[in-house]
């Protein structure tokens, strides 16, 4: 379900299965931390059985066997377990590693539309190596990857911090409880941006 925060106007895409369909509910906006209310009257109660978004995901990805792959680069920890569970909840097959050499080898042989990278990856040694690798990729390949930085010091969803860190989106460590919603928003914004970009390139004869 698409919802716009009434306070900061951030557009959010909430997985349908996270929203109670029999009562009004609310959640904190991952960007401004203000309360966003979801009313029963806003929901489409006529969709029986599996939630509509889940059906779309399964059909578009070819069912469980067709899940897209995601890579989580983070040292083993409860936070990593939580992130892996959240990404799996978005219908990805997740591979996680705490070692830079393993991550780089995986990226050499696999295409990951979603990569989540911790600032403290591989005992603070891996972030720079992974960032350099991403920056060295051909742009036609780099544009297909939504690179999300997991940070203990940067705020969730801050576009300037993301730009300076050469990533597509930032998730602050204090936003773990809402990480599935945040990642859904990050993926939606990434796809929307490059859809517009590609259409503009085609219109000018550059693609």
Stretches where pLDDT is under 50 for at least 5 consecutive residues are 45-64
CATH superfamily of the largest domain: Response regulator
CA-based shape: globular
Total helices: the number is 7
Span between termini: 32 Å
* Domains, number: 2
Number of strands: 9
Entry summary:
The protein is α/β, with parallel strands linked by helices.
Model description:
By secondary structure, this protein is of the alpha/beta class. The chain contains seven helices and nine strands. It has helices at 52-61, 78-89, 100-109, 126-136, 139-142, 159-164, 179-203, and strands at residues 2-4, 11-13, 25-28, 35-38, 68-73, 92-97, 114-118, 146-151, 169-172. The strands form three sheets. It has a five-stranded parallel beta sheet, sandwiched between helices. Strands 1-2 form a two-stranded antiparallel sheet. A two-stranded antiparallel sheet has the order 3-4. A hairpin with a 6-residue loop joins strand 3 (25-28) and strand 4 (35-38). The radius of gyration is 18 Å and the shape is globular.
Keywords:
globular, Rossmann fold, 207 residues, alpha/beta, 2 domains, five-stranded parallel β-sheet, two-stranded antiparallel ribbon
SSE layout and pairings?
Elements: E1 2-4, E2 11-13, E3 25-28, E4 35-38, H1 52-61, E5 68-73, H2 78-89, E6 92-97, H3 100-109, E7 114-118, H4 126-136, H5 139-142, E8 146-151, H6 159-164, E9 169-172, H7 179-203
Parallel strand pairs: 5-6, 5-7, 7-8, 8-9
Antiparallel strand pairs: 1-2, 3-4
